[in-house]
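Tutorial handout. Part one gives the primary structure; part two gives the three-dimensional structure as tokens.
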Amino acid sequence: MGFYYADRPPERGPGWKKYIPGWLKRFWASAEEALVITRVAFGVIFPVIGVLFGVVLICFLGLSILAKCTGAS
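Part two.
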């Protein structure tokens, strides 16, 4: 028999949390909060950064094409 305690889930140790300093643990108290922070980061922050990067890229390309068309070096 491979499963000794099938009715009880395996206990998880602190893992990466033991490397977090005390002042940061107040803001990053539990795994649920970390999940929320990660979800917010992937749902809000990264798309905003992507859109801003896209706008800057389009403006840069547009200006370079405009400069090429007008003959400015």
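Part three, for discussion. The chain has one domain: 17-70. The first helix runs from residue 22 to 25.
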